[in-house]
Write a structure and sequence with these properties.
about 30% helix; about 400 residues; 12 helices; alpha+beta; 6 strands; Arc Repressor Mutant, subunit A
């Protein structure tokens, strides 16, 4: 009886030992197969040897063309440039399969705080309000201070007072008598090659074929314009009289100088006497011819001045008129320029002050005896210009 009970106890104890051994073996096997920390559930926990906490945040999985098993990895620094080859690989002799990675994933040795450049940073911009002007100051119209006019201040610092005007009720009439001075742009009315010589924007009215201009109220009042005597030479060109000039310089040219015949004589004188000179030199010769027309000592016409004593061989006033040679116009373009200069000088658009009232000139390669008895004015090109002392022949 006792033996039977003992056998049952031994069998029960064996069964109890076998119940603890099974779970123990299974647990030991799990510990051997999964030796990682169970709390980590990221990509680093799936790779053995990457349990360091410093680099867990930048770990990731990439596709590897080189195969799931490779001997080495080659990371690149710039993923933007080499990202297209990430996941590729190469087989190296003696090494095996090498996988390419787009970026090494290493933390930079320089912290972010040191990479921030603060050299160009400045403080906050502070907006300053402008200082308000004095209370009684006003740079605008007096009508903007009507409150001061109606309720003047009674303090002792009065700086301005108003007096009763003597022209009350006539302000509009007086204001209408004033005219703004307008700076008119000169219109030379000549070819471009002569525009630089134009120094008078009020040419002779006989040359412009226009009526006399309206009075300039900026220089004279309307009452003065109405009451003044009519000037006989109004609108005519009167040359300015400089120191040493003779009074006849301010004689207006006769109206006939604008005729076709007179202008042809002046153009001939310019062409045959100075066609090789510059336009300024040709204008100076034209001014000498017209000065003789103004001078009572010489003929009262351009043709009379140019061809004076043309019957005297080599003893006339202008050598081309009495040298015995037949005159031909070989350069129509140069003659056209002479015609334009003739009209511009006759109209008064061009007046050379250095020539002034000169009535004589000669080329620098000749030495006439009369040059010692006259006043030298200027030299333009090859011509030297002279003015007489007495205003006549000498």
């Amino acid at each position: 009886m006792h033996r039977r009970v003992l056998k049952r106890l031994v069998a029960a104890a064996g069964e109890r030992k076998r119940g603890f051994l099974g779970p123990l073996v299974i647990g030991f096997g799990i510990w051997i197969g999964f030796p990682t920390v169970a709390a980590y559930q990221d990509m680093t926990s799936l790779v053995s040897g990457l349990e360091a906490s410093s680099t867990r945040w930048n770990s990731y999985v990439e596709k590897s063309v080189a195969g799931s098993t490779h001997a080495a990895e080659m990371p690149f620094v710039d993923s933007d440039v080499t990202g297209s080859i990430s996941g590729s690989g190469v087989h190296l002799a003696g090494v095996g399969n090498v996988s390419f990675r787009g970026k090494g994933g290493k933390v930079s040795a320089t912290p972010d705080e040191d990479r921030v450049v603060r050299a160009e940073k400045k403080g906050r911009i502070v907006q300053m309000s402008p200082v308000a002007p004095p209370k009684n100051f006003n740079a605008g119209s007096i009508f903007e201070r009507t409150s001061s006019l109606l309720r003047p201040s009674m303090d002792s610092g009065l700086k301005m007072a108003f007096a009763k005007p003597q022209i009350k009720g006539k302000e509009i009439q007086i204001a209408a008598a004033f005219h703004a001075r307008e700076d008119k742009k000169p219109d030379p009315g000549v070819p471009a090659m002569l525009a630089a010589l134009v120094n008078n924007d009020h040419p002779d009215v006989l040359a412009t074929a226009y009526a006399q201009s309206e009075p300039d109220y900026a220089k004279a009042s309307p009452f003065e314009a109405l009451l003044q005597d009519e000037q006989p030479n109004e609108g005519r060109f009167i040359p300015p009289m400089a120191k040493g000039d003779h009074s006849w310089i301010q004689n207006p040219l006769p109206a006939s100088v604008f005729s076709k015949k007179e202008q042809a004589c002046l153009a001939n004188g310019i062409y045959f006497e100075a066609r090789s000179e510059s336009v300024r030199g040709q204008a100076a010769v034209a001014q000498v011819i017209l000065n003789r027309v103004r001078n009572p000592t010489y003929p009262n016409s351009i043709c009379g001045v140019v061809y004076q004593n043309d019957s005297w061989f080599n003893r006339c006033q202008f050598s081309f008129a009495c040298d015995g040679r037949k005159k031909r116009i070989d350069s129509p373009a140069a003659y056209k320029t002479a015609q334009e200069i003739a009209m511009a000088v006759t109209a008064g658009k061009i007046f050379i002050p250095e020539v002034g009232s000169s009535t004589h000139y000669y080329a620098q390669y000749v030495h006439p005896g009369w040059a010692r008895t006259m006043q030298k004015m200027t030299k333009i090109g090859l011509h030297i210009f002279y003015r007489t002392y007495g205003g006549g022949w000498s």
